[in-house]
Amino acid sequence: TLESSYGSLEKAKEMEKKLELLSALREMSLAINEERDFETILSGVLHLAEVILHPLKIIIFLKKEETLTPRALRKAKQTFFHLDELKEEWEKEYFMALEALEKGQNRIYQQGMVEKRIFLLVAEKEIQGAMYFEYYQEDFDVDEANLRVLAKYLALAIRKPTLYNRAVVDSLTTLYTKGHFIDQLQKLFSMSQRLNKPFTLILMDIDHFKSINDTYGHLTGDLVLHEVGQTIKASIRDYDSAYRYGGEEMAILLPETSLIDGVAIAERIRKKVESLKLKSEDGQELRVTLSAGVASYESTYSSPKEMISKGDQLLYLSKKSGRNQVHPKILSTSSSRKLPFSRIPRK
Question: Which one of 36, 42, 302, 318 has the minimum C-beta count within 10 Å?
Answer without folding.
Answer: 302
